[in-house]
Amino acid sequence: MTALAVTEAESMPIPPPEDDLASRFAAGDEGGMETVYRRWSPLVLSLARQSLGDGAEAEDVTQTVFLAAWRGRHGYRPGRGPLPAWLVGIARRKIADALSARTRRTDAAAAAARESHRPPEPSYAQEEVLNRVDVTRELRRLPEAQRRVLCLAFYGDLTQTQIAHVTGWPLGTVKSHARRGLLRLGRSLVEEATE
């Protein structure tokens, strides 16, 4: 070995033994967590990429795994198995969650697409047309002032103040015509429905 190689080997940090690292991690040592992440995140990322087939999603899952590991570090028991195996167990659960979420999103998008392309049910569409015909007929039966106020409000989408401005009538008069017209229209439609 050359002198340069010996110098480089001496200057490289020696990774801590796995047992020591696992103990530091479980004790909440942030430096231990950093080392755990550097050492085993490539393994978790590789598992996530293989299962998900999406690099960005795999990176998100990897972050989620290590966040969950850090939060749940008190549940890690070195006697039950090595730390990497524990991390892989968390990774499998998080990958399964990601796949389930993907399936739910796909199903929801497909359902929304089906709904947007489905024509309205004939009975609903027919009922809607009949309701418009009934309302139009009953509007024609109202006195001119009441009909004008209601048409400006519903079809013109005007406020009562705007209607007063358009018609030149006092605001109180517009409000009275609107109230009387709605009451009369409602009574007529109810009477017709009960016949």
Automatic annotation (TrEMBL):
Domain named RNA polymerase sigma-70 region: residues: 37-104, 139-185
Protein family membership: Belongs to the sigma-70 factor family. ECF subfamily.
Matching Pfam families: Sigma70_r2 (PF04542), Sigma70_r4 (PF04545)
Protein's name in the database: RNA polymerase sigma factor
Annotated organism of origin: Streptomyces canarius
Keywords noted in UniProt: DNA-binding, Sigma factor, Transcription, Transcription regulation
Domain of life the protein comes from: Bacteria
Classification via InterPro entries: RNA_pol_sigma-70-like (IPR039425), RNA_pol_sigma-70_dom (IPR014284), RNA_pol_sigma70_ECF_CS (IPR000838), RNA_pol_sigma70_r2 (IPR007627), RNA_pol_sigma70_r4 (IPR007630), RNA_pol_sigma_r2 (IPR013325), RNA_pol_sigma_r3/r4-like (IPR013324), WH-like_DNA-bd_sf (IPR036388)
